[in-house]
Amino acid sequence: MPKLSRRAVDAAAWDVFARHQPYYHILSNPSMLSPGPDRQEEFWASGVSDIQSLQTFAGLQFEQGTGVDLGCGLGRLTRAMRQLTTRQVGLDISGEMLRQARESNQAFSSLEFRQIRDDHWAIETGSCVLVISLYVLQHMSSLDLMDYSIREMGRILLSGGRAVFNVPTIGWPGHLIGWARSSWTKLKGYHDKRRLRALEERLVQDAHGSAAFTEQEIMHDMFQLDCRRMKSLPLARLRAATRASELDIYRMRRGEFGLTLVAAEKH
Prior knowledge:
Helix content is 45%, strand content 22%. By secondary structure, the protein is α/β, with parallel strands linked by helices.
């Protein structure tokens, strides 16, 4: 059986989530299931609140230049970044999320949305003043992809530009325990692995809609895919990734469940 492209599986899964309940799959709050106009306003307002919190945490000031929102979804944070930069670019792996983002943000001429397709993000090296990413890295399908994304943050930032993002972290003992548990689960869960592989194949083959998938598959089975399962990055690996990206961490706060908020500057 040929090996599936991990990027293709991830993009197809998030396309299904976008067609199913996009507001919910971004915020994971029951109030965002089929939200009416008032709830949708709450959705957009939450982006403004989150950006203000990042501004306070990282000491951000308004700057002339481009700000990038990694894992932008519908553009919840991209829209709110207008208070930090003169131009905003939302990046996402899902073409359907981006289609809806463009539709929802037509009134804002400074916003642009681009799809992540290739080995490098479609953004010029050293061209941005700010990169933000909230609740995105932990859903990436591998730790290597987390590392890669941090390196890309460093690549696109100009000297003095800043990256502000969060990711769950663990120390090396916790990482080793997690690896052991994961290995044991894989040994016990051979049939589950085959079932998820079949689901991945269907996702890639049926890239045009979510009608072929049941509510159970979307709200339960797909949450076990690598692109949705929560992952933690070892703290040492996080620090190594930022160093390799020429990013100097100047503030870091580790909160509940190990969720770590990082502010770093490109040197």
